[in-house]
């Protein structure tokens, strides 16, 4: 079998989730008979990869450095095949604002939004635009960092008095923030895995927090804080539409091998809105992609095997020419 370096951890704020994803992937790869080297990514990454000489790298990193194209660029320089999406798709999906702008241009539904960076807020008077933003988006609204995942730094502003604190929280995670109209409704996730004939949407997962009215980091990753329903109990036409939107978003962003598109199903209207896309979604015990795969008849080991096989089929990627 193959020698696989599982890249996990790193220094991002999603380190702990990544370590859990990586450990679960390692167990699956060992059961599949591969020679596995666990790599907690740090300053010695290149040295370890050169010494270990893996046949392929399984990227199980989330957030900065792993999900933004950084480690993918290094793997391309070294000529090591790797799992998941390439540099450009990672750079697009890590930035929620870029994702939303691309969706708007492609007529893919996403909630109305505004965005500005720390410089605009501190030096260019962006704070003076808040009343206009609040009037156009209405309340409640969601304030979140432009990049990152796992619901880190995401705040729910019910009134104007909540916005300053929400901005401070979001700016503590990124130098750019996103203010978005809150879509009241059902929180859906569509996992996509590539099959022999291209990307295939898996059964939809609905996340239902038990006690909170907002799906935050703790609700997502602490066992017992959220109920997950898969397949989600949806009308057939809603499921079909959600799959169509997810596949359109997956292709628009250039995702490869697997990914996850998060949607909101609005109460009353039944409209679907793209929240964000994930190039390297979690693979922990509570993560949504493994749940969807299981519901679709693909157990975790087979899911990992499929993702790995796709990396070998694609082979090493050429770094940008000089």
Question: What would you say this structure looks like, in words?
Answer:
Helix 1 packs across helix 12 (300-314). The chain has helices spanning 15-31, 45-52, 70-78, 87-94, 96-105, 118-123, 130-137, 163-171, 217-221, 236-253, 288-295, 300-314; strands at residues 3-8, 35-40, 56-59, 113-117, 141-145, 155-157, 176-181, 185-195, 198-201, 205-209, 226-229, 258-266, 272-278. The two termini are 35 Å apart. With 322 residues, the protein is α+β, with helices and mostly antiparallel strands. The strands form three sheets. Strands 8, 9, 10, 11, 12 and 13 form a six-stranded antiparallel sheet that branches. The protein folds into three domains: 3-84 and 309-314, 3-Layer(aba) Sandwich (Rossmann fold), CATH 3.40.50; 92-109 and 183-298, D-amino Acid Aminotransferase, Chain A, domain 1; 113-181, ATP-grasp fold, A domain (Dna Ligase, domain 1), CATH 3.30.1490.20. The chain contains twelve helices and 13 strands.
């Amino acid at each position: 079998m193959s020698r696989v370096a599982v890249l996990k951890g790193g220094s991002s704020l999603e380190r702990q989730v990544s370590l859990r994803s990586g450990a679960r992937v390692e167990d699956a790869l060992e059961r599949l008979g591969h020679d596995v080297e666990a790599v907690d990514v740090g300053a010695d990454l290149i040295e370890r990869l050169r010494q270990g000489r893996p046949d392929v790298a399984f990227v199980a990193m989330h957030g900065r450095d792993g999900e933004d194209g950084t480690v993918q660029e290094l793997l391309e320089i070294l000529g090591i095949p790797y799992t998941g999406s390439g540099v450009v798709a990672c750079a697009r999906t890590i930035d929620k604002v870029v994702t939303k702008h691309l969706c708007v241009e492609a007529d893919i539904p996403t909630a109305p939004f505004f965005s500005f960076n720390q410089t605009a807020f501190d030096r260019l008077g962006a704070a003076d635009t808040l009343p206009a933003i609040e009037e156009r988006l209405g309340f409640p609204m969601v304030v979140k960092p432009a990049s990152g995942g796992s619901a880190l730094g995401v705040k729910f502003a019910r009134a104007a008095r909540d916005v300053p604190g929400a901005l401070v929280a979001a700016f503590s995670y990124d130098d750019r923030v996103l203010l978005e109209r809150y879509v009241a409704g059902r929180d859906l996730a569509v996992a996509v895995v590539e099959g022999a004939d291209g990307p295939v949407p898996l059964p939809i997962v609905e996340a239902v927090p038990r006690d909170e009215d907002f799906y935050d980091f703790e609700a997502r990753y602490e066992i017992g804080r959220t109920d997950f329903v898969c397949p989600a109990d949806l009308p057939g036409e809603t499921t079909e539409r959600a799959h169509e939107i997810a596949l359109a978003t997956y292709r628009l962003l250039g995702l490869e091998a697997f990914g996850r598109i998060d949607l909101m199903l609005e109460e009353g209207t039944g409209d679907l809105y793209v929240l964000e896309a994930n190039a390297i979604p979690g693979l922990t015990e509570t993560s949504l992609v493994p749940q969807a795969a299981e519901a679709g008849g693909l157990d975790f080991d087979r899911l990992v095997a499929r993702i790995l096989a796709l990396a070998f089929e694609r082979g090493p990627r050429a770094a940008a020419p000089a």
